[in-house]
Amino acid sequence: MPSSMRIGIGARVVAFLFICLILGSVVGAWAIGRYHKVSHEISNDMARRSSDLAEALKTQIIRNAYMTLSAMSGFERVQGKNPTDCTDVASFFLINTTGYINVGSVLPDGTVYCAAQAAVIGINIKDQDWIKSALVTGLFTMGGIQESRVVDSHVVTFGLPLKDSKGNITQILGLTADVDYIAQVLAFPHLPKGTSLTVIDQHGNVLVSNSASQRKPGDSIATWEVAKRAMKADEPFVMNWEGNDGLDRVFAVTSSRVSDAAVPGASRTDIRAFSIILGIPAQSIASSIMGPVQSAGIAIGFVFLLILAGIYFFVTRTLVQPIKEIQSMAERLTFGDLTARVVGKSRTSEVRSLADAFNIMAATLAKREDDIRTSNVRFQRIFETEPAGVTLLDHELKVIDINQAGLDILGADNVDQIRGQTMPTLVIDEDFEKFRQHLHAVRDGKTDSVSFQIVNLKGKRRWQKMQSATIKFADDTPPGYISIVRDTTDEVATEAQLVQAQKMESIGRLTGGVAHDFNNLITIVMGNAEILIEALEERPKLKKLATMIEAAAQRSVELTHRMLAFARRQVLHPTQLDTNVLLNRMVDMMGHLLGEDIRVRIETSDGLWSIAADPAQMESAILNLAINARDAMPKGGSLTIETKNVTLDEDYAALNPEATSGDYVQIAVSDSGTGMSPDVLHRVFDPFFTTKEVGKGSGLGLSMVYGFVKQSSGHIKIYSEIGQGTSIRIYLPKVDSGSATATTENEVPIENTRGSETILVTEDAESVRDYVTQQLESLGYTVLEASDAEEALSILERKSNIDLLFTDVVLPGGINGRQLAEIALNKYPTLKVLYTTGYTENAVVHHGKLDVGVELLSKPYRREELARHIRIVLDKP
Questions:
Q1: pLDDT digits (tens, 9 = 90+) for 556-601
Q2: Are 134 and 90 in contact (CB under 8 A)?
Q3: Can you tell me the distance from the alpha carbon of 249 to that of 15, in angstroms, rounded to the nearest whole number?
Q4: Model pTM?
Q5: CA 117 – CA 174 distance, rounded (Å)
């Protein structure tokens, strides 16, 4: 083509001049014909280049739409079932892209699920062709032209189906483009005058047109031969045909088929979008070229010799060289040099128009390339700032690329540290089979998710939740994989702590509920056992049986107390304690209890803060820990008890949700025993859980310690390893001096417990009421009985000489013991009140502590305890 152009426009011009002189008009006509042929070749060449450019622009428009929808599909907030999250992501993409008026998602039934333009959310658009096509093909699609529901304009919509792991379509992402945006992208300024531009959808409907096309958006031109070929074409083509205005035109036409450059993998399908039809008027180009030639011919006729060199120079400088320059720049542009421009200024207006058109075409391509680069940068930033870890892997599961969140999860400092490694090498052995099944599912083309644990590059064990899918990076390479990972270590830990707390609370409620009725029964058993023991003094065999009954009842009482301690429902009598003094007082007792094979070492800190705790329960807790330590050292060992002041900060409290930051006294009990496995350590505070042989332990020792510490507003932590021993640390809150004071009661000798006062006994359990009445009457008291508060109030109305109200706290009928006492005291201010209960979560005990000024006798109680408490209350001023 270049040599032909030089012959026709260079040397042949000179030959034409000479021939014109000899042959006259015949030769002139022949030359004109030749130039018409040249103009036709130029027209076709321009058309081919224009069709290539138009195909590139069409591909770019579709690619931008596909990349936007594909990027949006990767967001978990879009894949979830939260319309608000989905709308937020849609709004983000609408703001960060140009030319689109709406972005959103449609459910398979046609309902708009979410959209950046909220006005369309909830409407049903199942009748739109892009929805139908997406549901039938399951592929990226483009709809035909339609009137917008959001703006007063024509639009087209691109759709991308989202599928679940089974391949079912769950959503169809939609991206609506204004046809004016397509018109702006496809602007071809400085094309030959009269060039028509028509863009049609896959159905032959006009999307974009200019004045020369004499069409308007929405017109159907499906029967026009050029349009018919465009709708079926798989490649761009050039054809000569008559335009809508009746003029012969050279039409540069793109295919309607979507290429792999626009949508990866499109070559394996038949996705149709739109076609661009440029109609270049052949006559216009011929006229623009023939004008200078005809002028030159007339000039040659008059002054051949003078202007021969001038014409040759003129043609060469104004036509041949500019076209060669355009050709050279076109070749540079073809090989990817987007800076190629035609810079010459000495040229005719027609060639200048052609050069300007080329420059605009090159600038447009450069702008599109810059837009692609900007888009890539934008998506790269999204990739890097995505809070979830995103990892790209090749077909061998080796890491190709990973974002910063993924590096943090894997414990890597940079991409090079992890690139080329395989993910399975980090998965722990216990979860490897589950992870392998996940890989098989993904390799089968499914989108699959799995939770598993890894040991990251820093040696830390972390929980991960991964969602993976196959991804095609290039047509000529095996498929790779993309994985989106969230670190769920904190969530798993929090869930485990919540389950443990709920389990402890449930056990506590059950224990407290059982204790009420059980203590009533034990009160009767213990009381009657005492009576039987005294009555059978002269019958040793029967007395021994009665003694066994009493011992069993007492053992039941101890178990109940331990269960209530674990449930944090025992009655505490906190006093201000110096823990060092309490421990030093217990040294000898622990020495005798633990035996000679156990070395006991007490290490106390000077200036230890005071704590508020029940001394008896505190001693019991330490003894329980010491006994557990002894059992863990069957061949002897050492037991160390340490005290010190500690401050638990906010970081510690964040890692240990059961703890509250503040100042504490720490009591650490450590042994050199066998230690505990993680499974045992996980259940160590569960009631009735024990690793001892049957009959060797109740499993309530550590449970009681746990309940006591929690009821005392403290915190307990256990550390243990097999073969390394165990350390249990109790943290009890510091109190200011004088904030907790001890209350002591004078011991009343049993022989001084008799009396003659009148006592009103209010108890709903008949057997307990009969027992109490019998015991009090045997001590000389006058006893009145009531089964509920209403009966008791009736007796108080009739009797004004009652000295003591002895009432159960839990009563039937809607009025409890505390309310009964308040009503009675309003009428008789000098009346003495003694409460009894087998269940501490009630009206007189709050948070495990007895209300100020309240006298309470806890069930079950012995006869002597009943006699002494009655006497103590009656004797108080």
A1: 665 665 555 555 455 566 778 888 888 888 877 777 777 778 888 8
A2: no
A3: 31
A4: 0.38
A5: 12
